[in-house]
Amino acid sequence: MEHMLLLFIFFIPTLGLANGAETEQDFTWHLKKIPQIVSKRTFSLDSPKFEAQTKLELNSVCGIECQRKLPVPSLSDLKDLLSYETVFENGTRTLTEVNVLGIVPDPAGNTTAQRSSRKKRQIYGTDSRFSIYDKRFMTNFPFNTAVKISTGCSGILISPKHVLTAAHCLHSGKDYVKGSKRLRVGLMKTKSRGDGRKRKGAKRSRREVSVAQEDPEVTTERRRRSRGGGRKQRRSGRQQATSDGMPSFQWTRVKSTHIPKGWFKGVSGDIALDYDYAVLELKRPHKRKYMELGISPTIKMMPGSMIHFSGFDNDRSGQLVYRFCSISDESNDLFYQYCDAEPGSTGSGVYLRLKEPDKKKWKRKIIAVYSGHQWVDVNGEQQDYNVAVRITPLKYAQICFWIHGNDENCTQG
């Protein structure tokens, strides 16, 4: 039944209701001219301390009410907020200042729609999440684009060498979190017949030892296998893991990370969810299909105001969890929604499916980064939402620049 529902969600053409009649809507990816992010100069900084604790839930952030009052950032502000830090695998750090060209200011400023508040919950009503067990889904697009970050978050593949995730998975606003110094990304793979077996007397490499120390699930799995006395018992365990559809991970080292300066305290005055995104460059390219970036449309341009994302929720250890829901509110930079989610899924890529221009083909693109369950100010009180950071034209330009190293391939999105 679950498989049938997933097929319905992903492959039935989107229909809408207009004047009481069922008609196909014009839900299309509209190409937009993208501002240019140009590198101005780069400075060397002191190496980070890597002492911050990872926090998967934030509070005292600028929420719906605060967003309405924010002035439109000046060009000078944008240059400062979009400048970025890069940390390399050897612990060195740089700051790159940027110029922003071709931007068209938004005279409307930050706007949101008025909605009623809700009580604190991370699962809203009946838990509507789906654990993906079937390897036919798990190892194919779009689910295979989901990755696991060694600091406890999720992410999404956006190029053969790049992963998009949330900034707070790597940086607290003041310092880089523990574990981000030796950052790893776990790419899904289904357990095969030969997993976990080595020739008698074979030694584990340093890399295997390091990865096992950093990821508790890898350590637990290896201990379980070592306790299986005979060959028959070990084979039974492998078959059970495969039939259950539990993914294993191919862990890859991260070469460098990019985080916008707007995320850091002291620049924005406080943690700014608007800039809760980061890009990781992998040390080696993967061969999996990745998902392209898209400019986030407004709610009314989305089929049913619906978004989708998959991640590795902590309460379903070792499982890939998919969900979809409608957006409740939006500002220029954030989506406020009640998608059922738990810590561990933060950093997931939020996507939707629209038609390509002048084509009948539908295409999925990433339009936001799931920031997690956050407390925001609503009508003078702290209320909770599940929040996602929208990919605006400026953020698209910056992320595209991080991927390609220039703005030549980032003129439209």
Automatic annotation (TrEMBL):
Per the record, the domain of life is: Eukaryota
The residue ranges of the Peptidase S1 domain are 138-200
Q: What is this protein called?
A: Inactive serine protease 35
A GO molecular function assigned to this protein is: serine-type endopeptidase activity
The record's annotation in PROSITE patterns points to:
TRYPSIN_HIS
**What is the annotated signal peptide range for this record?**
1-20
- What GO CC terms are in its UniProt record? extracellular region
For bias kind Basic residues, which ranges apply? 196-206, 222-237
GO biological process terms on file = proteolysis
**Which UniProt keyword terms apply here?**
Glycoprotein, Hydrolase, Protease, Secreted, Serine protease homolog, Signal
| Segments for region (Disordered) | 189-251
* Pfam families given in the database record: Trypsin
Q: Which organism is it from?
A: Opisthocomus hoazin (Hoatzin)
Q: Which family does it belong to?
A: Belongs to the peptidase S1 family.
**Subcellular localization(s) per the UniProt record:** Secreted
Bias regions of kind Polar residues — which residues?
241-251
